[in-house]
Amino acid sequence: MRRTILAAALFMALPCTVAAQSVTLYGVADVHISHFRHDDGSITGMGSGGLGGSRFGMRGEEKLTDRLDAIFVLEGGFNINNGTSAQGGRLFGRRAFVGLRSKDYGTLIAGRLQGLGYEFSGAYDPMMFAPGSVIGSLTGESRRPWMYNPLADPARMDNAVLYKTPKFNGFQLAYQHGFRAAPNDAAPRSKSYDLAAITYEEGPVSLTYAFGRSTGTTYTSAATMSQTEHAFGVRYEIPWATLFGTYQIRKTDGYGGKDTAWQVGARVPVSEAGRIHLAYGQSTNDTPVTTDDTADWGLRSWAVGYVHSLSKRTSLYAYFKQLDNRGNARQTIFPPGGLPAPSRLGDKVTAVGIGMQHRF
Q1: What is the CATH number of the domain that holds 264?
Q2: How would you label 109-141 residue by residue, b for 16+ Cβ within 10 Å and e otherwise?
Q3: pLDDT digit string (tens) for 85-94?
Q4: Cα 83 to Cα 98: distance, rounded to the nearest angstrom
Q5: What is the DSSP letter of 186?
Q6: Domain count, the chain
Q7: Average pLDDT, the chain
Q8: Which helix (H) or strand (E) holds 134?
Q9: The domain containing residue 19 runs over which residues?
Q10: What is the pTM for the complete model shown?
Q11: Which of 140-144, 224-228, 275-279 shows the lowest per-residue confidence on average (mean pLDDT)?
């Protein structure tokens, strides 16, 4: 159950005086059983975070003035099926930041952030199933993830600062910078990033144009070159459904072609407690995914899911997704918990699962 307590009580062991401040403890417990298959074999197992990543976190705010608050979030992911930490064993691997929120000037936060790429994908993903996400396969499960993707770094970004303006007539601007980590770190952490987005949200309509630019490091492969991205997203609510669409373009310095990814989908309520999720999309890569890959890396994916709410906090769900590898692509579904990449070109990968999620 969600509880709000005083920060002084939470941190009473600290040898300092803490001003009255509200802190909310929250989390998600999500477990699923899924079956993954391609021509090399199949596997059935239990995983964590099918509908949403399992996590435990705390967020707080202190009112500095009537129009200015200090805010923070510390959020760690965990694997509920075995009790281990997610995000490579980080204590607060999902996000950790502190900042200021002003009614007049907007919000400024700094730390490890679920940044503009993560927010874009979450806002315009009709599936919202980690292993069942079409946009996740097209842009996040690749060995060279996009800046605007829902699953992999740099969607979550270390050493980052993010500023958002207040909303004005439905419009909001945002800018994010990710500082470069140690030069010998593997991409994407060795890069620095600049992302910007403008969003219009009013009534049933949500529209976003987003831009991203990464700086290169060693320039020895597509993954270490500078890249530029453009992302367009739309969400529209009609009486019987919510419709979604995205289109993304990526250009890598030193390569003549471009990479594209697009998807369309819908969420359709079928009862007061149930809704169907649908998505279809494709991606093409004119640049190599890694140094040992050729170009012409293409994917096609479709998915369907169902969510049934037992209460405001507890849901049951089921999903099916198919991923078709085209050209030189050899990609799998949900690499952390699924199968290794297929050995054959043109292989189809499928995933089907059921699960339960509880939010507290």
Answers
A1: 2.40.160.10
A2: bbbbbbbbbbbbbebbbbbbbbbbbbbbbbbbb
A3: 999 899 999 9
A4: 27
A5: P
A6: 1
A7: 91
A8: helix 134-139
A9: 3-359
A10: 0.90
A11: 140-144
